[in-house]
C-alpha cells in the first residue's frame, strides 16, 4: 500500500483512466456492440485497503475518463460490484436485453456494491444490475478480480506506464478458443495456400 494523506488530483485520475482504457481498446480491437467490464476499487486508488475508503468523487473522475475513451466506439460498459453483491454488474438495460442477461434486484451503494458501481448506477442511462456477463475485454483497477466476467480465452494486455492513482491495474482481452488439435485450419489464407499447392501438382 502507498497510502498518502495528500488528496489525489481528480483530473489526473480521469486522464489515467482514459489512457488505460484507450490503450486496452486499441490492443483488444473491440467492435461496436462488444462489452468492456470495469472493476475498480476507489480505496485502492487512494492507496488504502480494498473496501475501506470508497470515494464517489474518485469514482466519478475515473468513470469520466472511461466514458471519454469509449465515446464514439459503440462499446458497452459493464461496471462490476464488490463481493458483497457477488460481483454483479451495472449495465444499460439495452445491454441486458441484447445479451439476454439475468437481472437481479439490488441497488449498489458504497458499502455494499462499491463506490464505482454505485456511481455508475446513477450515471448510466436506464441502468439495471445483472448477475453475470461475458465481456470481450476488461480493466481491473485495484485487484477487484474481474476474471469471472470475461469470455474465454482471456489474454493479458500489458501497456507501459499504466496506473490509476496508487492502484495496481491489470487488463485483458479475449479471443475465441482454438479447438481440434493439428488438423483444423484457423485462417482463410491457409485454405488458399493449400488450394494453390494442390493445383500446382
Q: How does this structure look, described?
A:
This protein is an alpha/beta fold. It has a single domain (10-200), classed as Hypothetical protein TT1679 (Rossmann fold). 33% of the residues lie in helices and 17% in strands. The protein has a 7-stranded mixed sheet with strand order 4-3-2-1-5-7-6. Helix 3 (56-70) packs across helix 5. The protein is globular, with a radius of gyration of 19 Å.
Q: Going across the major beta sheet, what is the strand order?
A: 4-3-2-1-5-7-6
CATH superfamily assignment? Hypothetical protein TT1679
| Total number of beta strands | 7
Strand percentage lies at: 15-25%
Largest sheet: 7 strands, mixed
**Separation, N- and C-terminal Cα atoms:** 66 Å
Average pLDDT taken over every residue:
92
**Unreliable sequence segments:** none
Helix content: 25-40%
What are the secondary-structure elements, in order, as H or E?
Answer: HEHHEEHHEEEEH
Structural category is alpha/beta
Architecture (CATH level 2) name: 3-Layer(aba) Sandwich
Radius of gyration using CA atoms only: 19 Å
CATH class: Alpha Beta
CATH topology: Rossmann fold
- Count of separate DSSP helical elements: 6
Q: What's the shape?
A: globular
- Whole-number tally of structural domains: 1
List its salient traits.
201 residues, alpha/beta, Rossmann fold, 7-stranded mixed sheet, 7 strands
Concise summary:
With 201 residues, the protein is an alpha/beta fold. It has helices spanning 10-28, 42-45, 56-70, 93-98, 115-123, 188-200; strands at 35-40, 76-80, 89-92, 127-130, 137-141, 154-157, 169-174. The protein has 6 helices and 7 strands.
Amino acid at each position: 500500500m502507498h497510502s498518502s494523506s495528500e488528496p489525489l488530483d481528480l483530473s489526473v485520475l480521469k486522464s489515467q483512466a482514459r489512457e488505460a482504457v484507450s490503450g486496452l481498446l486499441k490492443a483488444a480491437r473491440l467492435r461496436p456492440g462488444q462489452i468492456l467490464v470495469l472493476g475498480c476499487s476507489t480505496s485502492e486508488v487512494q492507496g488504502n485497503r480494498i473496501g475501506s475508503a470508497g470515494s464517489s468523487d474518485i469514482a466519478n473522475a475515473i468513470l469520466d475518463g472511461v466514458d471519454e475513451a469509449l465515446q464514439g466506439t459503440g462499446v458497452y460498459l459493464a461496471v462490476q460490484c464488490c463481493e458483497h453483491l457477488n460481483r454483479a454488474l451495472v449495465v444499460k438495460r439495452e445491454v441486458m436485453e441484447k445479451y439476454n442477461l439475468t437481472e437481479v434486484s439490488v441497488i449498489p451503494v458504497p458499502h455494499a456494491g462499491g463506490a464505482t458501481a454505485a456511481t455508475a448506477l446513477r450515471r448510466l442511462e436506464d441502468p439495471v444490475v445483472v448477475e453475470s456477463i461475458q465481456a470481450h475485454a476488461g480493466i481491473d483497477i485495484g485487484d477487484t478480480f474481474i476474471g469471472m466476467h470475461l469470455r474465454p480465452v482471456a489474454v493479458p494486455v500489458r501497456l507501459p506506464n499504466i496506473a490509476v492513482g496508487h492502484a495496481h491495474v491489470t487488463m485483458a482481452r479475449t479471443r475465441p478458443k482454438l479447438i481440434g488439435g493439428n488438423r483444423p485450419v484457423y485462417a482463410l489464407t491457409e485454405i488458399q495456400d493449400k488450394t494453390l499447392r494442390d493445383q500446382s501438382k
